[in-house]
């Protein structure tokens, strides 16, 4: 078993390196004779190395060329070093761009990270063997460990590897000293990037491979084109709106919610993450008695907002009770439960809903138009989770266009608006903030809250069931 | 509402085979018909009709694509930044790391918030899934998955369970318990089964259904209790990396993004692909609905984030800068939709002004790729998970 299949996870195509194109273009520009980074010769140990740059020069160039500040330039520079386009001459194992006089060189394009070419373990083994030949004991501890591992795994190829290493070593000896030193530095930098030392990470680590190679040309068979035709035809016939209309709606949404966005306007009394005081969450709990003014205001934005806030929905139910028109919301809730419920409960739920809301003479009969009623009843012959969709949408639109606006003008809503509280903003001193940080409250486990809500729902369901007249009369008679 | 799917029939007798099945609304010779997915497949795979050749089909498909672009362009009368001119500019932002959650032994791959606004579930490469109370930074539950690379995790709406999956090709649901010593793996339920790695999962509005996307190119909707496949979604030609569910109560759509550079919009009821956007230059790593449900943003390996409007059926904004070279791995909107938080592979998080298209802040702090960015349910903070094994809460 070689290391390669382990890393492959049974998948093949090397992906996710679209950034390399841009990075390469940037590096090419940096190397430009006239406008690139200033480079000069430097003496390192005994040899003179050409085209060496200092960290701060690289940073200045990036900041100037891309019009960014030094912190961002630092990030870009460090990424270039991490990917191996630029390598440090001193402290070669730490792949960061230091904003000082540290020396760096451009890596030769032969060693650039390429989209299609993975550095093989065979090559790494040859490299380590070569270094071993050159000077016994030149390998670091982690390199020695890797060398031993590779020796074990590649035992069958070892003669070939040693032979290659010897060849490369001989070829290297025939070069001029300066060239040899440069090449050694480059090769070493390449392997630091591709086989990172322990407790560092390689920028080339991109996660797992994709399964399907999107660059592979798909077989253009009949059904390939037919599918495109079918899809494009229905896409063309789909109705669209003008950009001005839909973009206007997006802008309107932003403006409506501007004051409710904790990143844009301070939340009252204070953001729990910033001050370590969770009053904000306490005041906005799901079933709090008195909601905050901001919360009540949010209910007026759209019917969807009102329904999705459990406190708002409860208030809406109070209003509906006064109007004796609770069956619409009850039907909508029942349809939601069916849509999102378990598959096993479908037919049972469908039957209950039909009996309670749709059958002629049902105790909570909802008023929908004939066509929708017809569609729904027909669909109920083969109940599936979306059978009530048409009816549910009709009822939702009814409530949204009529009942919702009456609710907003009703005394119930005005009452809750008056009662709603507006907490004063906190003003903690530094000492108080420190105190808060030490006393963060643990909060209630959501499981407990859910259990409580389930109990309340069960109680409400029992209470709201259709009144059995016979039983009621029986009780009255019994008491007499 | 962004779609008229409520008007279309999505279940009933197929016009071709009369079986009662989920229906796709397609057009045959410009007439709308309702076919079940099996009949659509058969129609696609039938042999050449007299007068048809492979070349003629190819030209027909290309003509239709051009026509679609023309239709889209007809209603394009204004750009987003023009409409946003009257909107006031944003001030300076001071966003700091308020909490650092340390405890994972390897790269953090995915996170999700609980609806109680303070708990987070996170999964990592070493197979561990941890539930944190981010406010106190305590670890509440920990699960060890039998596989590595747990790329997907989700918190159930009730707060009583979590779902996760990855290289095991499955999505498993773990019910959480109040007893801290209980071994959660004992009650594990395997729900989804794909033929390749699971890239993303999400509960729908209840604990009973899960939507998953996989490296095998498909998405699927599952019933949690029985493990039954309710609907599958085919249409991507490469790995699907991400999905997001529509927030509106009356729409039944979700979006997915994949390695084929496409962002697709799906009808959950019939499995039909209703819209598709192919303007990215590289893999789409993240898609996220705009809070109103009428638009969505995507982040991609081509170092750009884009905003797509569903009602206008086009891309309306590109968020990119020359100095951003490395791909965006994750995006999320703030509560009002004015801010777009995007995590990048160059270890930074960029905050974009959605309307004006400019970058308002860049956040440093992570020491490796930012793999996931999620805004809390009440918008008070956002959480970023990174390959440096930590999670950070920013506010």
From TrEMBL, chain A:
SUPFAM superfamilies: Regulator of G-protein signaling, RGS (SSF48097), Transducin (heterotrimeric G protein), gamma chain (SSF48670), Winged helix' DNA-binding domain (SSF46785)
UniProt lineage: Eukaryota, Metazoa, Chordata, Craniata, Vertebrata
Name of this protein: Regulator of G-protein signaling 9a isoform X2
Key words, A-Z: Signal transduction inhibitor
Originating gene: rgs9a
Organism: Chanos chanos (Milkfish)
CDD domains: DEP_RGS7-like, GGL
Protein origin, superkingdom: Eukaryota
Signal peptide start-end: none
GO biological process: G protein-coupled receptor signaling pathway; intracellular signal transduction; negative regulation of signal transduction; regulation of G protein-coupled receptor signaling pathway
InterPro entries the UniProt entry points to: DEP_dom, G-protein_gamma-like_dom, GGL_sf, RGS, RGS6/7/9/11, RGS6/7/9/11_DHEX_sf, RGS_DHEX, RGS_sf
From TrEMBL, chain B:
Database matches in SMART domains: WD40
Protein's GO biological process: signal transduction
UniProt keyword list: Coiled coil, Repeat, Transducer, WD repeat
PROSITE patterns the record matches: WD_REPEATS_1, WD_REPEATS_2, WD_REPEATS_REGION
Highest taxon of the lineage: Eukaryota
Intervals holding WD repeats: 101-142, 191-232, 233-276, 277-318, 330-362, 363-395
Record's keyword annotation contains Repeat: yes
Residue ranges that the Swiss-Prot or TrEMBL entry lists as coiled coil: 54-81
SUPFAM superfamilies: WD40 repeat-like
InterPro entries with a match to the protein in the record: G-protein_beta_1-5 (IPR016346), WD40/YVTN_repeat-like_dom_sf (IPR015943), WD40_G-protein_beta-like (IPR001632), WD40_PAC1 (IPR020472), WD40_repeat_CS (IPR019775), WD40_repeat_dom_sf (IPR036322), WD40_rpt (IPR001680)
Subunit note: May interact with RGS9; this interaction stabilizes both proteins and increases RGS9 GTPase-activating protein (GAP) activity, hence accelerating the deactivation of D(2) dopamine receptor-mediated signaling.
UniProt similarity note: Belongs to the WD repeat G protein beta family.
Protein's UniProt name: Guanine nucleotide-binding protein subunit beta-5b
Species: Chanos chanos (Milkfish)
Name of encoding gene: gnb5b
